[in-house]
Amino acid sequence: MTEEISQNELLAQRREKLETLRSKGNAYPNDFRRDSLSSQLHESYGDQKKEDLEEKNIKVKVAGRIMLQRVMGKASFITIQDMQGQIQAYVRSDSIGDEIYKDFKTWDLGDIVGIEGTLFKTKTDELTVNAESVSLLTKSLRPLPEKHAGLVDTEQRYRKRYLDLLTNAESRKVFKTRSKIISTIRTIFEEKDYVEVETPMMHSVLGGAAAKPFTTHHNALDMDLYLRIAPELYLKRLVVGGLEKVYEINRNFRNEGLSTKHNPEFTMLEFYEAYADYEDQMNFVEEIIVSLAKRVFDSDSIVIGGNNIDITKGFERLSLVGSIAKYLEVEEDKLSDRSFLEDLAKRLEIENVDKSEMTDGKLQLEIFEKGVEDKLIEPTFIISYPKDVSPLSRTSDTEPNFVDRFELFIGGKEIANGFSELNDPDDQAERFKLQVEQKASGDEEAMEFDSDYIEALEYGLPPCAGVGIGIDRLVMLLTGVDSIRDVLLFPQMKPKS
Known about the structure:
The protein is of the alpha+beta class. The chain is built from 16 helices and 18 strands.
């Protein structure tokens, strides 16, 4: 109760200060223009000698939020934080005037200020702005989290990301890195002559992936729509239309649970290239990962679980059943035996193994996901997926029960999914029909029959291959964070009751 009263008193005091500001004129001015950022100043002048700096008499205008303050009688130090970092300012009454200094002493941590002055070095050799004028630009009505502890409650960090960013330099670094990763991806694709496109976020037909959708209603058309689970079928329509190398970075929505690896709203990179196959795209995906590590982090390795993993030595490639045999230590030829698969699945506590919709391929995939996936720490491509779990993939020329598909796993997480595209309209129609049957049998993640897409295929889809890469998981991998919520600015949270 005491803490609550204290907090209320602080809020009341700051409100009172705001009212005083209002009585004097404009409490929220917008006439200060900074010309310098903290990191630029540190980079340019941080190594200069005290005497040299004084001689140059460098004038600067800086602005930011007060994060530290040592307010004294006639002279004070404050540290302000801008978009790039922090810089110290020295404020004296004889420089800015007694009346302004009197007001300055009432300013609080969190207030946003503008400072004009001259650069110098303190006795401790800290680069500092000797203030010649100071302006209060925005009054902070709520106190910041305690400066040493910061925002330590994990849930509060996600619910109040703005406070997390204000007080946690590591969080700011992660999201700046995320931005750089995405911009570098765009550069890589531009270098490869890909065209960036945007496709619909609301679909009338469910397709492009196996997932449970979110539904909405379009009032004007009086029809239900799905928030897209994947852009795949639209992107391949564009390849039909002659855009032979396309990519999209945008949101997908899947009505699934929340975890450290899943958020119902997530960012995907998806791309397609004509006259390429899944092996070409495997090579390109490997090139993308290596290139990002070098361009963004200037490194040939990534850190997983405290271990440096060299990503330049080539990614391992294993068949789906081969990986099960390797990591669960079973004989590969037994993995085509139904009774053996069921027994193995039950040992892994996989449910519904006896249901009719649980085909051999689905059973193999379930076993892989439950028993193998988290063991794939080193970069590993899993290939040779069963046909019945890959309704959009091209059938292998050598193995008719399998498709030309791969998934990339690093650090026990799926990073990419790609395949040679199915461009036979009759085969695709039959697979859609099978999906419809599975949906009717209770499979909520099965696709619907997309007749318009079949019509597009009938005009001719060139031989091509496509890939989807989860941006959020990719950022997790490259920044070394363990939870997807740490790379999402505003992760989905249940509202507080």
